[in-house]
């Protein structure tokens, strides 16, 4: 294994939870999360040689992962060799109550737009406004305005 | 459910993920070793394949015309369609080449809107072109020497074409809806 491969694997290993959460926001079932996870890993791998450390690795990973998920078009006709995720949603939440919670979470997320999902994901992950601005390439003041809009939208959705 | 509750649920997921392996190092290594083509690479490769196929059909058609195996009208119509198709594939290749995961998210979404527009154009232009191509072939090449087999072939193409159109329409309807959603979101995001 090359040095580049090893440092990439270490980086993904450190941030695999982050990648999973981004995929979770955009996919609706285990199979989609698995496909999306691999697509993100592959895009990260392809972009890795261009990563010069100008931004924090976490910012770079978020950007690539969000961009991959935003533009992800599932190619149902494409038969790819897939490598399965070690964990499935069912294994993650064995308890029925927790599964119900997860379903509710999904139902809410599914009503949001692609960019709104990215914003709420970063807010839920407690990223600073500066980081969110860097990841989504918008101004810091804009981040505040947009997050408030999404929060209002979510509150309205709860009340319906 | 309030926002705090949403955050609690999210944190619960986060906690569970911290305790799980998610993706083993072996699986990660396998992914980067065995899969070398991203969805974008696939799109770009597909457009090149279509363009090559169009060039091959153009060569065959020209050859047939030079050997007087097909009528002039068939040649002119088919060549025009192939050239138009070739330009379209080149354009779609350019659009697909603009995809980059390193770009800002809104730019990424804009590229998706463009790509989907191409898909929709393909559908709206594809049906009349297919009808023109079939009509030309039918009237120029077959109408003088129609026999039962050719009539059967010609007639059986009608239901096949109709089913293909319905399936394509259903597929493209989803694409159109996604374009509308993406555009609305982009406008909202930029406002």
Provide a descriptive summary of the structure in words:
The complex is a heterodimer of chains A (160) and B (191). Chain A has 160 residues and is mainly α. Chain A has 2 domains: 1-90, RNA polymerase sigma factor, region 2, helix turn helix motif (Rna Polymerase Sigma Factor, Chain: A); 111-160, Arc Repressor Mutant, subunit A. Chain A has helices at residues 3-26, 30-47, 57-70, 89-92, 96-109, 114-124, 129-136, 140-159. The longest helix of chain A has 24 residues, at 3-26. Chain B has 191 residues and is mainly alpha-helical. Chain B has one domain. At the A-B interface, helix 1, helix 2, helix 3, helix 5 and helix 6 of A face helix 1, helix 2, helix 5 and helix 6 of B.
* Alpha-carbon distance between the two ends of chain B: 29 Å
Shape of chain B: elongated
Which band does the percent of strand residues of chain A land in? under 5%
**How many β-strand stretches of chain B?**
0
DSSP helical segment count of chain A: 8
Major sheet details of chain A: none
- Classified in CATH, the superfamily of the largest domain in chain A is RNA polymerase sigma factor, region 2, helix turn helix motif
Rounded radius of gyration of chain A (Å) = 17 Å
Query: Which series of helices and strands of chain B comes N to C?
Result: HHHHHH
Bin the helical content of chain B. Answer: over 70%
The number of distinct structural domains of chain B comes to 1
